[in-house]
Amino acid sequence: MSSVSEYAVGQRWLSNTESELGLGAVINHDNRSVEVFFPATGESRKYIKSDAPLTRLTFAVGEKIKSQEGWALEIEALQESKGGIIYHGTRTDTGEQTKLSEALLDHQIQLNQPERRLFSMQHDIPKWFDLRLKAFDQMSEYQRSSIIGLAGARIELIPHQLHIASEVGRRYAPRVLLADEVGLGKTIEAALIIHQQIKTGRAERVLIVVPDSLVHQWLVEMLRRVNLPFSIFDTSRCEAVDDADENPFEQEQLVLCSLDFLRDNPKHQQQALAAQWDLLVVDEAHHLAWSADAPSADYQCIESLAQQIAGVLLLTATPDQLGHESHFARLRLLDSARFHSYDAFLEEEQHYSELAEAVTPLLNNEALTDAQQAHLEKVAPQSMQTVGDLADEDSRHALLHRLIDRHGTGRLLFRNRRANITGFPVRELHTHPLPLPDVYQDLLESNYDDLEAALFPERQPELVDSWTDLDPRVDWLLNFLPSVKPEKVLLICASARTAQQLGEAIRLRTGIRHTVFHEGMSIVERDKAAHFFADEEDGAQVLLCSEIGSEGRNFQFAHHLVLFDLPMTPDLLEQRIGRLDRIGQKKDIQIHVPYLEDSSQAVLVEWYDKGLNAFTHTCPTGSGVFEQVEDQLVNSLLTPEDTDTLQSLIETTSTVNQALKKQLDEGRDRLLELNASGKGKVEELVGDIVMEDAGSQLPEFMAWMFDAIGVNQEDKGNECYILTPGESMVNNLPGLDPDGMTVTFRRRVATTLEHVHYLSWDHPLVHNAVDLILTETVGKASLGFIADRELPKGAYWLEALFVLSINAPKHLQAGRFLPATPIKLCIDAQGEKTDITFNKTRRANKKIGQQLVQALKDPVSKQIETARKLASDEAKATLAEARQQMQQTLGDEARRLSELQAQNPAIRDTEIAFIHEQMTQLEAVFDKADVQLDALRIVVNNP
């Protein structure tokens, strides 16, 4: 192995950070960058030359190398030519003299020099052998895990979220509609699905398209929840590379942009279409207006992407019963071949409604009457053919889940209702009417038709610098905060300026600790403010948020919410309350609304409270009601003295609200809701994650790993640790902040203190640390002593670590069946395999070590050959077991989907075809599996 500063086309290099890529070849380079293609996985990487994590692979005279055609060469001489190396020597199969350019080396070759290092005295501390073995063991177990991409997310373990993520995330190119009601975590579900798809190799390139106002929220959520750093694309970013004649969307794997940006820029929309994506995610999908004759520009933009991209996730909180045609349009985006006719869809929906009604006794776990059983046989004859005795609870349970599997849109649509989910707190409303100042009254009389002035008089130019001195809401706030001290208070208002001015009033007139949080701050500044607020002992009592500044954050350690002003739309009010009203909130939510009497603010309070009951309960019909009464509401807001108009508004609102709620309830599909909740299916998954969370395996492994690498670890208390680079670090550790970082291994801490990094088996820092160990030569050869009086003095053993591995494209998910698997053997002086293990192996004196190696070179060489034969036999058995598991697992999946497809057209042909193709390609990959010697350690007993 060597490192050079000059690159040439054809040179062979290894990635130090992605060892699974195999051996790469330089295909292009310029003054700044170098591009390397990795044939084993069919992927390429472009690196900046000055910081490329690459190691040049070269071989020496006497070594054997393999060509891409399969024949081997024993090297006798090396020749440099145009920056590359040509190896001269003898073919081992024919004995003829020939040459082999490094460009034609077998791309399966890996960096593997333990023998050379052992006999040339390049010995490492003996513990590194143990560390390599442990790292391989842990990563092998990790890749076989069923909870990859789920357990490592910074989330509370909410069953319905985990069920949806698991059900959708393990599919090939999933195309689904996530339609949970507000507050149930659709964004988290999408993040988990994306994370699982990426971690398991099912997806690499992801495009997220959201409304402009939600771009930052999604950026924060993806980074904080699942450590995925998306890149925001907008006009300025794309135009910056226009002159380079490149598609900007091909420069990043994970892209986030607004729908407005794509819709309004045809050129960039075409660039996004031209880029190859694995998964498309669209939030607020109910805004995509559609009709058969006039689909909107937004809809057409997303439709063009959905037709090109294999996987599609649509998110909307709007229930389909508020607009069946709109709901049909969403499903049409997912499967235009199946949902081609709205009339046919309505007819199909009628059948599903009959089925959902027929299974009501099963949902209630009741025995079926003869009439009910006959009804089920009529609406679901295929499912009833193999049913057992329905008087038996297990038979009823089995039938219910069979019906869910085969139920119409149940595979495409996931919808949970808050009414069916436990864990939400109670909301308590506290209104605080305050006198309307004369100066405000004068202002409103002179601006009688200005709705903004009516709702937000403090924003008017003539009062913008003085309003905090005369507005009674400010005095109320300054008196309220001490009354609930030390309890935390979240205050939300419409604008950043209002939040800042309130903060200044608190600073000048009280000693209350406070902080401000708004969209004008950088992410670092927001993090500091959120951390200051979260600090229980020395932190701020109140956090003053603007509207957009409160998005995407979890403040559920607080339970007092002050709504300093009110938004016009019910959805935005629900979003505000949702900052605290979340599953996992431990206390009841205290909602405080200070408002000015005899003003538009008073009207809005009355409308929300008495018309919609939106303060104390969620209001899934809010947006639908608002659309119908908006004109009446605006009229009442502009005439707050007209009590008759207000009363009429409240009565109309209540009537419309009740009608829409009844419509929602009558349209409930309880079979769909059971499918979305995961009840009866998700419990085992949650249990597996809880068990992993409770274990000490990862903290102990990482403590050992950080110590070996040279990372300083300081116990900060509260199960948090501060990691800083040590002076003796083996190498730079990607992901470790040079200034240090605070981490925890506990979910409870991570979900409370969001500034703390949550280390899990999914976390990039864990994988980077493992890669750092396994891609370095350190630990490949070592010599150590033990002191065991029960063993013969002077006895020695050879420990050999082999690794059975394959190189395959990520989408095949080969690691699910055969990850890089360690085979550790111990050979005694007589050449026999032994199960002895060694603890507390100490490093040998360099001079003594040299003497021992020289004396033992011949017998150790024989021991190595013995170990190779034993490892080869063990590898064959492991490979056969992995092949059988792959055939059985994928074969069962393919058969199950084929059987379901006969009754549920939501199963796509491409899903089944992918599994068959996956099996075929994995068979070919398994045929090329190779077992390589990774590390050697000689252990001598010297008690």
List the helices and strands and how they pair.
Blueprint: E1 12-15, E2 23-29, E3 33-38, E4 43-48, E5 54-56, E6 64-66, E7 72-81, E8 84-91, E9 97-101, H1 114-119, H2 127-143, H3 159-169, E10 175-178, H4 186-199, E11 206-210, H5 215-226, E12 231-232, H6 235-240, E13 254-258, H7 259-264, H8 266-274, E14 279-282, H9 297-308, E15 311-315, H10 324-334, H11 342-358, H12 360-363, H13 370-379, H14 381-384, H15 393-406, E16 413-414, E17 427-434, H16 438-446, H17 451-455, H18 467-470, H19 472-484, E18 489-492, H20 496-509, E19 514-517, H21 523-534, E20 542-545, E21 560-563, H22 570-577, E22 589-596, H23 600-612, H24 622-638, H25 643-666, H26 670-677, H27 683-694, H28 697-709, E23 711-717, E24 720-725, E25 741-744, H29 747-752, E26 757-758, H30 764-775, E27 781-786, E28 796-805, E29 821-828, E30 833-834, E31 842-843, H31 846-901, H32 909-927, E32 930-941
Parallel strand pairs: 10-15, 10-16, 11-13, 11-14, 12-13, 14-15, 17-22, 18-20, 18-21, 19-20, 21-22, 25-26, 27-32
Antiparallel strand pairs: 1-2, 1-5, 2-3, 3-4, 6-7, 7-8, 8-9, 23-24, 24-25, 27-31, 28-29, 28-32, 29-30
